[in-house]
Amino acid sequence: MENKDARIFITSVNKITARLEHYGEANTDEIHLLKLIYKYSCYAQTYATLQRLDKMVAQLQRENPFICLEKQAVPSYIDSTITIPEIPIGTNGNEAPVLTGGSVTLTDPNTVYTFSYADLLSGFTDDSGQPASGFVIKVLPVQGTLKYNGSLVSLGTLYPDPTLLTYTRDVDTGYSVSFNYSAYDSDSQLPLESNVVSMNITVEAITLANEPATVGDRAQYAGNRVTTVFTVADFTTEAIAPYFDPEANDLDAIRIDEVSTANVGTYYYLGVEVVEGQIITAAELNSGAFYHTAPDANGITTDSFNASVRDTGSMIWVQ
Is the peptide bond before 241 cis (omega within 30 degrees of 0)? Predict the structure, then answer.
């Protein structure tokens, strides 16, 4: 809409202000005047010069979300003698935040980098002092993979938590890569997007192969009809010999390689009888997903299974 069509003419700004303040917030007798001012601010994409009317305009919009699209007749006491100048968004209202980019390093021999809040948003500043409501990936890296909470990143999606963003290398050699992103402020009425910046990622070459972990056997005793829940400790500190990884990587998962056909009791994974080849993560172990139910027997019985383990670094299965 052209400037000349985006101006309304009033005999006195003070007269309108006094009239609105007299009637209070969104008085129905003068609602057409409020609609006129709000119509002007919507069409011209500006904030009205009378900033103290914000609460009344917000109430009107709650009552009718399409109020700025309604055509209102100009009241009789409005003429064409004085103009209210247009004021761009940001002059007296919410201003777009400013963001600076950053850089991180994926160190040898790691394959995945998990971002922190500081990595992505420590350079975020906003006129109201509020934190960022989230970030938006604008351009993906040309090498490697970005994921959010385990799923591939979608361009243009507002993601709220930077700590759920990960980058995974695709080769063992070193390289540099980047992606572009922006952020939004936390303004509830008019959230604004920042400038677009780059996150530079330096990926170090893997110089030494990550060695697999080693672990010994584990003997577990249980009473008649007793349910035994396995934890990570059963496959690390309680094993003989204990779990050991040269790079001090934690246990990532176990894999059920064989379940004895002579078992009298039953091994379960998430309520279903476990099968050979089943992979059970460390998190699942600690949540009680893997357990054994002893039989109802008067004598001594022995149930057994064979399993392999892998560490979070090498991801190599070892028995």
Answer: yes
Q: In this predicted model, what pLDDT tens digit does every residue of 203-246 receive, in sequence order? A: 999 887 788 999 999 888 888 888 999 999 999 999 899 999 99
Residue 248 lies in a domain: yes
| CATH number of the domain to which 199 belongs | 2.60.40
By residue range, what is the domain housing residue 34?
A: 3-69
Q: Are residues 197 and 116 in the same domain?
A: yes
Q: Are 237 and 174 part of one and the same domain?
A: no
Residues 22 and 114 in one domain: no
- Euclidean distance between CA atoms 252 and 250, whole angstroms: 6
The domain tally of the chain equals 3
* 251 burial type by CB count under 10 A (0-12 exposed, 13-18 middle, 19+ buried): buried
For residues 244 and 239, give the distance between their C-alpha atoms in angstroms, rounded to a whole number.
10
Q: How far is CA 303 from CA 36, 202, 242, 251, 306, in A?
A: 81, 50, 21, 24, 11
- Higher confidence at residue 164 or residue 91? 164
Whether residue 90 is contained in a domain is answered as: no
Give the bridge partners for 178, in sequence order: 200
Of the residues 51, 69, 87, which one is the last residue of a structural domain?
Answer: 69
Residue 67 has pLDDT above 50, yes or no: no
Angle between helices 54-63 and 31-43 (to 10 degrees): 90
Q: What is the mean pLDDT of residues 155-184?
A: 96
DSSP notation for 240-282: BSPPB-TT-PPEEEEEEEEE-TT-SSEEEETTEE--TT-EEEH
Sheet holding 158-159, edge to edge: 102-106, 197-203, 175-184, 134-139, 158-159
pLDDT tens-digit readout, 236-289: 999 899 999 998 999 999 999 999 999 999 999 999 999 999 999 999 999 999
10 is a domain residue: yes
8 falls within a domain: yes
The pTM of this model reads 0.42
Strand order in the sheet with 305-311: 279-281, 251-259, 305-311
Across the chain, mean pLDDT equals: 79
